[in-house]
């Protein structure tokens, strides 16, 4: 949930503990449980967080919407965190601070191409379903997105993408009277590792802007599930637009799972309609080892590569994509079968075999990488599980389903080998919450300040937190003892 802290604008009720009035969904009254101290001038309005994801089956084939395209996903922690700080009304600037990629840029709000975005034929509403980027809007942003012209080409391109995606949403949703703002992001998800870092940011930016527009009333404890679902849908629609700016032709699966959380089966049959998303409440706790090759890759590049191969060999690639769909649907049937038991060798072996087949098909599409093949080789050599790449491939991460009886020394040997060869291993909690809001940005995080209502997370603390661990410790959604008091989530359904 999003929280208004500053009290300098309409989003706050004057005490800093109010929630904005809501367009369409009726007003929401929510009071902070804890007594609040005076806000510091560095305090942000609110924080938004969204998780990354692990694709267990169906990457790439999902882009082509085959029947039945089914994809199993698990969103893991860690999370992204976006922070927004509202400046004084007299400041007519919008600033973006993407610290992980050293992108800091400020635009003068009055110099942005509002006239193009506000034309009646172009203007979108906060609930619009946008399925392609408008070339006129893209062209209008062109003079504003080359924010690091003196940087090396690769950095320049990443900064350009970030600036472009942010401005596309900012100008589509905002208006020339939008107040001056600073958006600061720190992420605990490795970039370009196949764990959905871009989708997580897409969801954070979308949620933050929609909250600022006061188009979302939640999350709040008494929210009816239909209302929560509608709001999640709005966030997801605009997150998809952000993903289109970064990736060109995304399926929408990454932003969907980052918005909704949990494990889901995702289907996109028709791009003109929202995707069908089925949460899997009882997704088994599979013993997965997640390994990062530390080989950077680009989803846009890998998706374009498969597209090129499909154009050259339409029938052949078509049948490979069909086979991948069949693997994904077989896995969905298997895992949701009453007989499935994640502690039993037979059940795990069947899922493992499907992973091996899925990986082989991905290899045939050319989206593996020697460092991914090396992980598979090491795991196969020790005979301790089944491995596949996850996400777009071309580097990034692999997942290994471990056999139930793997002797500890064998696993330790593998981990030692991986470390020597510069791989990173992830411990993750899978199937967690989706987008969350901290409003106001006050959190009980195990310090003495908890007794006084919690610690106010100001921008300085946020920027100075050391590394991923520091960010997690300061503002992480989950503290050591479970969910942190403060963060709120849209609950789309109960079991
Ligand atoms: N922490 C971050 N700060 C700013 N931009 C980021 C950050 N993380 C990712 N991005 C944006 O997302 C792009 C990487 O997205 P990409 O889809 O290639 O990787 P991914 O989302 O981690 O992987 P996958 O799509 O396979 O899950 C970067 O080039 C950058 O534009
Ligand atoms: C490769 C892909 O299927 C998953 C990337 O995480 C692309 C997409 O679905 O947009």
TrEMBL record:
Keyword DNA repair annotated: no
GO biological process terms on file: ergosterol biosynthetic process; isopentenyl diphosphate biosynthetic process, mevalonate pathway
Region Disordered: start-end pairs: 1-28
Key words, A-Z: ATP-binding, Cytoplasm, Kinase, Lipid biosynthesis, Lipid metabolism, Magnesium, Metal-binding, Nucleotide-binding, Steroid biosynthesis, Steroid metabolism, Sterol biosynthesis, Sterol metabolism, Transferase
Record domain GHMP kinase C-terminal: where: 345-408
Entry GO MF terms: ATP binding; metal ion binding; mevalonate kinase activity
Coiled coil ranges: none
Catalyzed chemical reaction(s): (R)-mevalonate + ATP = (R)-5-phosphomevalonate + ADP + H(+)
All residue ranges annotated as the GHMP kinase N-terminal domain in the record: 173-258
UniProt family annotation: Belongs to the GHMP kinase family. Mevalonate kinase subfamily.
The protein's name: Mevalonate kinase
Lineage, uppermost ranks: Eukaryota, Fungi, Dikarya, Ascomycota, Pezizomycotina
